[in-house]
Specification:
The chain is mainly beta. It has one domain: Fumarylacetoacetase-like, C-terminal domain (Fumarylacetoacetate hydrolase, domain 2, Alpha-Beta Complex). About 15% of the residues lie in helices and about 35% in strands. The protein is built from four helices and 13 strands. The strands form three sheets. The protein has a six-stranded mixed sheet with strand order 2-1-10-4-5-7, covered by helices on one side. Strands 9-8-12-13 form a four-stranded antiparallel sheet, with no helix packed on it. The two termini are about 25 Å apart. The structure holds zinc ion. The site of zinc ion has 8 residues, from strand 1.
C-alpha cells in the first residue's frame, strides 16, 4: 500500500511557511515503511534537528479506482482517521531551495503516524470535522476540514488521475497551521472532535 499526501491544503499553514498558494494540489508519496508501528515511540532521526509534527485527517481507500470523478469519490472510502505527517523541516527546506524532491524529509521510517479509524457514517458532514493535536496536554494544532482548499472528494479525483488507488491506500489530506518542532519527551495526542485517535511519545 501507499500513502498519498497533500501539501499546502490549508491557507493558514501556507502562510506560516511562507509558501505560495498552489494552483493545483501539491502531492507527494510515502512508502509503507514510513508507517510508525502501533505503540512504538517516534525516534527523532539523526539527520534532522527540526522535525515538525503535522496533524492531518486521513482517508482509507476501500476500492480500486483510477480517474475517479469527484461525484463518485465517496464510494471509494468508508473510514476517516487522523495521523501525523512528520517532516524534517530543515532537510525539506534545503531540498526545496534546490528544487529537489522532498522524500528524504517526509518519507523516512516512522514519518507517518496512522491512528484509529472511524466509520464515515459517524460524521454528519465530512467537510466540517474538527480535529486537533496536543503536545504534553497543550493544544498545538487545530483544524476543521471546511478550511481545506481541496476537499476529500476533490483530492480523490485529482490524485486518481496520476495514481491507481488500491484497497488500503491512505490519503493524508494536509495540515492546518501550528506545525512545530518536536523534542524528546514530548507526547503527541490527536483528536477528532472529542475522540482520542492516537498517542505518540517522542524519543
Ligand atoms: Zn503534511
Amino acid at each position: 500500500m501507499k500513502l498519498i499526501c497533500i501539501g499546502r491544503n490549508y491557507t493558514e499553514h501556507i502562510k506560516e511557511l511562507k509558501n505560495e498558494r498552489p494552483t493545483d494540489p501539491v502531492v507527494f508519496l510515502k512508502p509503507d515503511t514510513a508507517i510508525l508501528l502501533k505503540k512504538q515511540p517516534f525516534f527523532i532521526p539523526d539527520f534532522s534537528n527540526d522535525v515538525h509534527h503535522e496533524v492531518e485527517i486521513l482517508v482509507k481507500i476501500n476500492k480500486v479506482g483510477k480517474y475517479i470523478d469527484r461525484k463518485f469519490a465517496h464510494k471509494y472510502y468508508d473510514e476517516i482517521g487522523l495521523g501525523i505527517d512528520f517532516t524534517a523541516r530543515d532537510l525539506q527546506s534545503q531540498l526545496k531551495a534546490k528544487g529537489l524532491p522532498w522524500e528524504k524529509a517526509k518519507a523516512f521510517d516512522g514519518a507517518a503516524v496512522i491512528g484509529k479509524w472511524l466509520p464515515k457514517s459517524n460524521f454528519e458532514d465530512l467537510n466540517n470535522i474538527n480535529f486537533s493535536l496536543q503536545n504534553n496536554q497543550q493544544i498545538v494544532q487545530q483544524g476543521n476540514t471546511s478550511l481545506m482548499l481541496w476537499k476529500i472528494d476533490e483530492i480523490i479525483e485529482y490524485v486518481s488521475k496520476y495514481f491507481t488507488l488500491k484497497i488500503g491506500d491512505v490519503i493524508f489530506t494536509g495540515t492546518p497551521a501550528g506545525v512545530a518542532k518536536v523534542s524528546a519527551n514530548d507526547e503527541l495526542t490527536g483528536f477528532i472532535e472529542q475522540t482520542e485517535m492516537f498517542t505518540v511519545k517522542i524519543k
